[in-house]
Amino acid sequence: MNKSIYPFYFSIGALVLYLLFFVIPGFMGIYFSFTDWNSYSEGIEFIGLDNFRTIFSGNEKYLSYLNHTVTFTITTAILKTGIGLFLALILNQGIKGKNFHRVVIFMPVIVPTLIVGLIFKSVLHPEVGLVNEFLRSIGLEVLAKSWLTDIHLAFKSIIAVDTWKGVGYIMVILLAGLQAIPDMYYEAAEMDGANFWNKFKHIIVPLLMPALTVTTVLNFIYGFKVFDIVYALTNGGPGYETEVLYTGVFKEFSLGRYGVGTALSTVMFLVMIVIGFWAVKWMSNEDEVGK
């Protein structure tokens, strides 16, 4: 028994830190979401579900936070998975310089998101930005836009920048999944006269499903937690056009509305629980199918 308990001692320090900085603050945040905690009064009153009624009562601002977050998550997940799979399929072939191309595509992943945001804020500047300068230089000035200040383009620009940054990470996961597929399946398919589409439909997709499950879960978790790329590029503007849940939380806290801010965080916490449960259930089903 001493031998079995002994390794537990080494985890006590990490458990204590986790409790102090994650678990306890998390439960405190849930509690404060049911209060009127703010910077304008000294006392804190329990108000039940009033903060959640404020969020879901049809207030356009808060509903836009939720709508933009869901839209961002689904769109970036589809784009990253689709482009990442396309690149993985190409780079899984015996093309010349494939290792170099893999490194180049993956490089944006290791650059801090805030740095990427600041760089693209300059690149997409309407007057002196590299994109508009290039379009003007080739006679396509009509295509030069206010990428980050136009209400019709700002959110799409954020999605494009985030996809550019994150697609390399998804590509690497899917590439590893492709390389794990035994060659004998392809050889057997070729003997039966299967073309690429047949191989893709009946071999690649089914055997790549565990990797696709992982990338989908990662994309959804990241999408619902997005903050830094939005904050760096547009700070939620113009107006509320690019606000997401975490920029909303940030602004509620900056206005001293701590109760509403923690309520928004609690909503996100509940969403993440649902996603986590769905992900675990889906992955368990995939394991059962694989067996």
From TrEMBL:
<feature type="transmembrane region" description="Helical">
    <location>
        <begin position="103"/>
        <end position="124"/>
    </location>
</feature>
<feature type="transmembrane region" description="Helical">
    <location>
        <begin position="12"/>
        <end position="34"/>
    </location>
</feature>
<keyword id="KW-0812">Transmembrane</keyword>
<feature type="transmembrane region" description="Helical">
    <location>
        <begin position="203"/>
        <end position="224"/>
    </location>
</feature>
<keyword id="KW-1003">Cell membrane</keyword>
<dbReference type="InterPro" id="IPR035906">
    <property type="entry name" value="MetI-like_sf"/>
</dbReference>
<dbReference type="GO" id="GO:0055085">
    <property type="term" value="P:transmembrane transport"/>
</dbReference>
<feature type="transmembrane region" description="Helical">
    <location>
        <begin position="70"/>
        <end position="91"/>
    </location>
</feature>
<dbReference type="Pfam" id="PF00528">
    <property type="entry name" value="BPD_transp_1"/>
</dbReference>
<comment type="similarity">
    <text>Belongs to the binding-protein-dependent transport system permease family.</text>
</comment>
<feature type="domain" description="ABC transmembrane type-1">
    <location>
        <begin position="66"/>
        <end position="279"/>
    </location>
</feature>
<keyword id="KW-0472">Membrane</keyword>
<feature type="transmembrane region" description="Helical">
    <location>
        <begin position="166"/>
        <end position="182"/>
    </location>
</feature>
<dbReference type="InterPro" id="IPR051393">
    <property type="entry name" value="ABC_transporter_permease"/>
</dbReference>
<dbReference type="GO" id="GO:0005886">
    <property type="term" value="C:plasma membrane"/>
</dbReference>
<feature type="transmembrane region" description="Helical">
    <location>
        <begin position="258"/>
        <end position="280"/>
    </location>
</feature>
<dbReference type="InterPro" id="IPR000515">
    <property type="entry name" value="MetI-like"/>
</dbReference>
<keyword id="KW-0813">Transport</keyword>
<keyword id="KW-1133">Transmembrane helix</keyword>
<protein>
    <submittedName>
        <fullName>ABC transporter permease</fullName>
    </submittedName>
</protein>
